[in-house]
Amino acid sequence: MRRNALVLLVLASLPGCMVGPDYRSPDPVLPDRWKSSRDPANGLKPISENTLRNWWKTFNDPTLDRLIDRAQRGNLDLQMAFARIEQARAERLANRADLFPKVGGVAVPARFDNMLPSQDQQQGPSATNFFLAGFDAIWEVDVFGRLRHKLEAAGAVTDSATENYREAWVVLTAEVARAYTEYRNLQNQLRITQANLSSQRHTLDLTQQLFDEGVGTRYDVARARAQAESTEARIPALEAGLTTLQHHLEVLVGEKPGALQMQLAAPADLPNSAARQLLTTPADTLRYRPDVRMAERDLAAATAIQGAAFAEFFPKISIAAFAGFQNSDLENLFRSTAFSYASGSAIMQPIFNFGRIRAGVDLADARQKEAYLKYEKTVLEALREAETAMNQFLKEEQRRQKLVRSITDLKESWRLADLRYREGISTFLDVLDAERILYLEELSLAQSQAQTTLYLIALYKALGGAGHLEVKPVDEPIRPWG
Fold first, then answer.
1. Which of 133, 160, 238, 482 is the most exposed place for a label (fewest CB within 10 A)?
2. Where are the domains of the chain?
3. Predicted model pTM
4. Which pLDDT does position 273 carry in this prediction?
5. Could you give the dihedral angle defined by the CA atoms of residues 272, 276, 281 and 283, in that order, rounded to the nearest 10 degrees?
6. Which of 265-274, 360-369, 375-384 has the lowest mean pLDDT?
């Protein structure tokens, strides 16, 4: 028996006995450069890993920095993602434990009654007591790698959960920056609207004065009042939008409504980054994207499960042992003469299982194929997202620059229209039209400035920005029982 156990131990230590496919990480074929980066006029440069990891700091906005720090500590989605890591780690430990012997204590009191005595027994039915106490152990020797494949799959699942946590962080930083940018954009639009409303009210007062003096017309007064009222009507919608975005930011940082009111109340400029250091090599980009790494780990897990399913075709070998005391008399159970031990081994080879094992292998193959296709799609989506975001950012930046020049010309146009009206050369309608067009163009510029920042945020996200977050608990564990 000792010789058999030694042989089994030697077999278990041979890695060559593992059956099933050997996993190789896929190497997708990628273009060497982004299409948008091929134009030298764009001035794109490679970005450092540290800059990409903390991309929001390129905006030099202390409020945004504080919001992201609070989100890292308090966001509930991030905490749930970390809880999934803990679940995966526990599953891996459970799979690892299956590789080792299982030892347990056993105590058996039993009584056997013989209702049909043999011919040599002089009396009637007899009773026999049996007592046993000790330790037993059983060990499945993983000769063909079934358990090791499961452990390998559990490790890949743990890695995937880690990348899911990092992906949640990437999404969170982008969402906080996006909501904060939109909040500052609405503040900027509110400021422009209030400034234009003040100017339009001044124009209305002047028009009313001219009408009272018999110089102007009632039509001019009505037009001036309608334009002021139309501008004033925009303010409640802007204020409602600010409140909505404030509450959204409060949810992102894991705090109750109203917690950020004081911090966001003071008007501030839009987050603006002059950085044009953007990755120009797709292969480098994909290294930073957690969703691509997560898809690759899912593929590794599915491949390992293939191996575990295929190993079901091969025998399961186990060793069992017992050491303890057994006796028919409870009082003498723990005497040295009652000590006993036993050992044995078993080999179970599946023969008839009505296609269950084959179905399990087919299922594992199909899931591995799905995981591979998902990985390929994730890579394509990463390329599409980055190309789209880069193109949108560059085009919107061009639009913003043209709007800046347009505002300069419209201000001069409004000044000349007002001067011509005062000199009696043109009508008051020309002044109102010039003022209205200038106001709308100022709003367009404000929106374009915000949109440029939003596209830049989307681009950083597409490049895998913040994807190297260290995995650590984001808060104390929640214990509802106190």
1. 482
2. 2-18+31-111+131-462
3. 0.82
4. 81
5. -30
6. 265-274
